[in-house]
Design a protein that fits this description.
Blueprint: H1 9-23, H2 30-37, H3 41-48, H4 51-74, H5 81-97, H6 106-112, H7 119-142, H8 147-169, H9 174-193
Helix pairs in contact: 1-2, 1-4, 4-5, 4-7, 5-8, 5-9, 6-7, 7-8, 8-9
């Protein structure tokens, strides 16, 4: 249509996602989103929605992008459970080390801000964290852990995974982050070797 500015929605969503990731939901204003996306406020509202719906879309986009990578990493858990869980952690460690994205994790950052978020956004963040535990539990059951051990390790590994992003943002070195992973891997290795009842 003549006179109407066209833009790539995916590019705009990625730019908004990075802005939310860098500054957090509460500290991102519409002006920040306008600068990040190159769109004026009316274009943001008409094409991407209000701030809350845009954030929800960005959180879904983030969860899908990295969730697919986590799923690929865990796909071989029944044959190589330790290798699969290490590959799961490597998805996070590679993201943390990637200079093209902000440090930390959009999901972890959102979860830490839950008391200040609207109920809808808080629920969405809790759901995304819950999906991580479900993904891990399914892989650990495939690795032949007992239901109880799979539940416990899914909670533990999800918590460690989120803490890697927080620790990185707080200045932890790659060596320290790998040490955190190694300790969790050692505990999982012992559980996998334990005789089944």
């Amino acid at each position: 249509m003549a006179g109407k500015k066209q833009f790539d929605v995916d590019v705009a969503l990625d730019a908004a996602m990075v802005q939310f990731w860098r500054a957090g939901y509460a500290d991102t204003s519409l002006d920040d989103l306008s600068r990040a996306t190159g769109l004026n406020r009316s274009s943001i509202y008409s094409s991407l929605g209000d701030k809350e719906s845009l954030f929800s879309r960005c959180l879904d986009r983030y969860a899908r992008r990295y969730g697919d990578r986590y799923d690929q990493a865990l796909a071989g858990a029944s044959e190589e459970p330790l290798g699969a869980v290490r590959a799961f952690f490597e998805v996070t460690l590679r993201r943390i080390a990637d200079p093209d994205v902000p440090d930390g994790c959009l999901v972890a950052q959102t979860a830490m801000a839950i008391p200040a978020l609207s109920p809808d956004i808080a629920t969405r963040a809790i759901d995304v964290v819950g999906l991580q535990r479900v993904r891990l539990r399914t892989a650990l059951i495939a690795a032949k852990l007992t239901d109880s051990d799979a539940d416990n390790f899914a909670v533990h590994i999800a918590a460690v995974n989120q803490s890697l992003a927080v620790m990185s943002r707080a200045g932890a070195s790659q060596k320290q982050l790998h040490t955190i992973v190694d300790i969790s891997m050692s505990a999982l290795s012992q559980a996998l070797r334990a005789p089944r009842a």
